[in-house]
Amino acid sequence: MLSNAFFLGKGGVGKTTLSAAFALDLARSGKRVLIASLDPAHNLGDVYGVALGDRPTGVERGLDALEVDLGAWVDRYLEESRSELKATYAYAGTLNLDRFFDIMKYSPGTEEYAVLWAIEHIHCELSAEYDVVVFDTPPTALSLRFLAMPAISRLWIAELSKLRERILEKRQSITRINPASPVASSCVDKADDKVYGRLGAIRERLAGLQGLFGKESYVAVVINPDQLSVSEALRIKEELDRIEVPLSGLCVNKRGVSAAEWSLDSRLSETPAFDFDFLPGGLRDREDLRTIDCGSLVADFMATAPEGTL
Amino acid sequence: MDSFGKGFAAKPFLFLCGPGGPREKDMGGFTDGIRAALGVIRQVNRERATEMIEFELKELENIFTLLVIGGFVGMPAPPTPIAIELLPLLERELSIMLSRSDFAQDPLGALMGILQVD
Amino acid sequence: MTTMIALFALALYLVFYFTFGKTLRDKLLKSDKAPAAPSERLSDGVDYVPTSKYVLFGHHFASIAGAGPITGPAMAVAWGWLPGLLWIWFGNIFLGAIHDYLALAASVRYDGRSVQFVAQDMIGKKAGKTFSWFILFLCILVVAAFGDIVAGQFAADGRVFFSFVFFCVAALIAGFFMYKTKLGLGGGTIIGIALVVVAFIAGNALPVKWTKDVYFLIILVYIILASTLPVNLLLQPRDYLSSYFLYFGLLAGGVAALISFAPLDAVPVFTSFSAKLIAGQPTPLWPAIPLIIACGALSGFHSLVASGTSSKQLRKESDALFVGYGAMLVEGFLSTLVIISIAGFGGYALGDKLMATPALGRFVQSFAKMVSMNLPFLPFNFMTLFAAVWVSTFALTTLDTTNRLGRYIIQEMALPLKDKNAGAYKFFGNKWVASIVIAFVGLFLARSGGYSVLWPAFSGANQLLASVVMLTVAVWVKKRLDPKYTMTVLVPAVILWVTVTAALVWYEIVIVPTFFKDMSKTMNVITGGTVGAINLFMLILNFIMIAGFLKNWSEKKAAA
């Protein structure tokens, strides 16, 4: 059985509800489950009827939940760099640095990285206590971005590392021949070069996350029974294929909400699909979640095995 | 010894040698002079053997820095967080980048020197 | 006699260095009161690195020494040995060395900016543009002149080609050991020099007899390929090893000249004012001498080299005398040796055929004779091979690097086309196109022109560049230094400008038409057209520049 499950989908398709029901089912079948909401909308607490924070809160036996505070993660992430910069450039009047970093919050990539480090934190610090970690993700756009981040960054980091190696090699070459060269002061071994080391550390973190997404996760996409939703699912599948993250299951939620014609695209036919009927009565509390039948989904999940084992 | 026959390099030696032959102190000064001269020759050789590579290195370092933090000036770059993480460690690279951007305005002279055009 | 001349040259240079040079430093530049040099003020551990003046001298001298100071004087003996010598001595002292020295000093005062920048500031934007055009034409003409020189060397002495090829292999191997292994400089150098000796032995044993055309083709391919290689592979190690050629040649030649005591009778003191030098035409000593002897007396290239890295590394401005003025005088001494060897030993080497031999062959044979007769442990056969490989190596390195430089210049100059004609910009901006244009055009000219015609064109462009620099320096002295001394610089600058302009006009009127004598020879016609057009264009730029100069000259002293 894989140890992670991700629920992707557009806003409003029922990700939070389904992931909550799924987690509850798993917990009641005897597994120790942690469900983490990465969605800034933070509906998870409402669904469970429990106030949730940044740390795991017990919902019931075998089920803990938390809502990731992305803003705090962004700050925490930037603070590390900010204090390092402050230390290095202390002389350069960093009075304006804070304001600068406020802008950095909104720069492309920061949010995705915050999500990644939050996931990494959960994976490294918390997941040992649990059998399964379920992730309720933010709307598709951000999710695809953070899922792709390790793959995209890998190429950059690999090339940068190679270039850095060449630079270090040349510095050594020059210093060996001409110790009086100004280059000599920055000539260090590969093992001692902080930049190369940092690039390597980043590469390892990203490789770890890439492994997590690609080989240890059950990725389910939640859709509604309409053509728009199906197109969206197709787009997501293509993107996941591109970054080598397997799509494990399709959850067709709110079946019967409308009588309009729709069909599942043939390209999605390989993916196991699970139906969830529309509940006209709506969901009011935790026990209402039991009315959602996750049986087949849970069974499919438990039948999975981490890549490389059987 | 015919002084004319000694040639250019021997002129300092002639100055140091008085009519009574080289004295102990003069010999010391003379060997120091030779040592200094050899030191200069050695340094010139070292620079000659590395000047093009040093030039190339500066350019590589410039490119590396541009690749990492180009995002701050609108160039395609790795995700900003990676750039921010590496930024504090790139002190020397940043000064090279500034130096190169200055250099790029007026490279003709340095190029002609490095490229040995003559 | 030869010894006398050599000693006289040394003494002359030393005297003028210590009197005239020091006067310039103390009275004109007032270097002791000058602001701190940029290497100290702007020290950044990257380009602005204070360096000992001895190291800088060696470095600067090695940069400016090449095949130039050898070729020109070898050609000039057609006028007799005295005129060339006088130009090398007094042209150097009053023009060339000052040009180098003051360009270096001006650059230092301008925080290490190149002399092109200074010219733009002093004479106007157009002056800066003319620099780019001159350099571009120089790149093409250098390829033309040096291409023919090298092809001629290869064709004249069949041993040279493979000696050079094996020398390149030696450089590749030595480079590997020096840069990729822990062997470092000492070990790499020993390996390199050992392999060079092997290369000479091997080349000596493998003479080839190919036609000049074959060599032209080989050189074309060589230029285009070599200029695309990374510098650490071939260019850097070969450049390093070839500096040992320079040391050895200068040392052996200097010592041989000083102990030779031979009469200078292989060539008359003075043949005629209008000896038939260029394209078989009577060549008037004035104004054409700068077209023959460039480097060795005066070279525009040097100002760029000086204002490139040297100015950023001078520890203090007063060092500029030693580096700028001094290095140029030593180059003058090298040229003096060339003339001494030909005038003193050309007879022993070539007898009656001396003046009939192409200039470089003259040098190779005479130099080898001079060394082997006075230093008997260096045999004649080895010295001829050495001298030929020495000149060829420097020339071939220049061919490689000029191509790289020319590519950059073409791309820079094509930049304005970006908005107006994107297609043309893409075409010229393509590095292969730029590379082939320079190499092909250059070698085409070489093949049908021959260096006796193309060398003067190259030299003229070089001297024009130098005269722009001299005029720039004159304005600088007037506006930024002490107007009292303006005449010291202005007078030589004006004399130079008048001479060079007259020389190029003469070249256009007398030499270029010789290409069109026989209209059926299309190659010649095309060459003549190209060279004539380049020359004309340079003359026009020259007049535009002088107009800018006059305008700036008469303006009131600008606010600092």
Q: How would you characterize this protein structure?
A:
The complex is a heterotrimer of chains A (310), B (118) and C (560). Chain A is an alpha/beta fold. Chain A has helices spanning 15-28, 44-48, 70-88, 97-104, 110-126, 140-177, 194-215, 227-242, 295-303, and strands at 4-8, 33-37, 57-60, 63-67, 132-136, 217-223, 249-255, 273-277. The relative contact order of chain A is 0.16. Chain B contains 5 helices and no strands. Chain B is elongated, with a radius of gyration of 25 Å. Chain B has helices at residues 11-16, 24-69, 80-86, 91-103, 108-114. Chain B has 118 residues and is mainly α. The longest helix of chain B has 46 residues, at 24-69. Chain C has 560 residues and is mainly alpha-helical. Chain C has one domain (2-158, 209-554): Amino acid/polyamine transporter I (Up-down Bundle). Chain C has helices at 2-29, 38-41, 53-64, 68-76, 81-109, 115-123, 125-156, 159-180, 184-205, 212-226, 235-260, 285-292, 300-313, 320-350, 359-374, 380-414, 417-420, 422-429, 431-449, 451-480, 486-511, 522-554; strands spanning 274-278, 281-284. In chain C, a hairpin with a 2-residue loop joins strand 1 and strand 2. The radius of gyration of chain C is 23 Å and the shape is globular.
Would you tell me which CATH topology of chain C applies?
Answer: Amino acid/polyamine transporter I
Largest interface: B-C, 38 and 65 residues
Which value, in Å, is the CA radius of gyration of chain A?
23 Å
* Structural class by helix and strand composition of chain A: alpha/beta
Major sheet details of chain A: 8 strands, mixed
- SS class of chain C: mainly alpha
Stated plainly, the CATH topology of chain A is called Rossmann fold
User: Considering DSSP H and I runs of 4 or more, what fraction of the residues of chain A is helical?
Assistant: 40-55%
Would you tell me the overall average pLDDT of chain C?
A: 88
Q: Terminal Cα separation of chain C, in Å?
A: 53 Å
Radius of gyration of chain C: 23 Å
Give the SSE string of chain A.
EHEHEEHHHEHHEHEEH
The oligomeric state of the chains shown is: heterotrimer
Number of distinct beta strands of chain C = 2
